Amino acid sequence: MSISQMMSSGWRRLLAPFAITHGPTPLEDVSDAYRAELDLVARCTQHAQRVHYPQFRVELLRIGAEVQAHLPWLQGQVLALGGHLPSSPPATLEGNSWECFRRDVEDVRQSCGHLLEWIHRTERETPAIAAGFQRIRTDKLRHREEFRQMLMKSDPYTNSTMGPPQAHEARQKQAWLEESKGEWLEHGRAVWEGEGKQTPWAEWSGEQESKWTAELPHHDREWRQHLAEKSEPPLP
User: Fold this and answer.
1) Which residues are CB-neighbours of 23 under 8 A, at least 6 positions away?
2) Distance (Å, rounded) from C-alpha 71 to C-alpha 139?
3) Average pLDDT of the chain, as a whole number
4) Taking the alpha carbons of 229, 165, 101, 147 in that order, is the dihedral positive or negative?
5) How many CB atoms lie within 10 A of CB 22?
6) Which of the four, 15, 37, 75, 121, has the lowest number of CB atoms within 10 Å?
7) What is the chain written as a DSSP string?
8) Is 160 left (phi over 0), alpha (psi -120 to 50) or beta?
């Protein structure tokens, strides 16, 4: 080995720990997408079996069927890239329908973000996969809005065992939440307009609904604080 080859080999060994590692492969991306869609199909099916409103049952089964239609293409991509079909543990639903819809909205929102990341990562080397991800994301954005509509129309207290005082407090809480949400959205809209409306209205409003849903535990704490302040005796 020449001196130059020895020096080159030495530099490679020295710099190896600092080498830039590549991100996930297209196989990993399509496997993750397949697993996510498989899980959503199972959740839609389980939710449809226990949902209180018949019209929601129809909607859930339709969404599940549309997500199911993505699986053959994803299966083909996994196998074509030399992978094995990943398995997904059975979906386990907890809470009432309203809570399930709330989680669906958030999960689908996250899936839309993941798909956008996968599209950007694959569009140069595997444009066909990027195009397939884009088709799935288009459906996913529509499903997010449909889940959001069902969330808004569903009753948070369905199948509860609340007595009259609790039901009265529940209605008060719902009215307070709606008022708070209106003020929160109005403030956000003012910021959106002040920044030049950089995001289309439909996309912006959908994002705000997802944010509000994700922040519901925080608003619950605000409601309890509101109740505590109302129950405090007036100062003498």
Assistant:
1) 121
2) 13
3) 79
4) negative
5) 6
6) 15
7) --HHHHHHHHHHHHHGGGPPPP---HHHHHHHHHHHHHHHHHHHHHHHHH-S-HHHHHHHHHHHHHHHTTHHHHHHHHHHTT--PPP-PPP---S-HHHHHHHHHHHHHHHHHHHHHHHHHHTTT-HHHHHHHHHHHHHHHHHHHHHHHHHHHS-TTTT----HHHHHHHHHHHHHHHHHHHHHHHHHHHHHHHTT--S-HHHHHHHHHHHHHHTHHHHHHHHHHHHHHHHSPPP-
8) beta
pLDDT at site 192: 77
| Encoded tokens for 120 | 């950007």
Of the pLDDT bands very low, low, confident and very high (cuts 50, 70, 90), residue 168 is: low
CA-based diameter of the chain, in Å? 95
- Mean local confidence (pLDDT), 4-14: 49
Amino acid at 87: S
Tokens at 113, concatenated: 């973000």
pLDDT of residue 214: 79
Q: What are phi and psi of 54, to 5 degrees?
A: -60, -35
Q: How far is Cα 125 from Cα 29, in angstroms, rounded to an integer?
A: 13
168 or 25: which leads in pLDDT: 25
pTM: 0.60
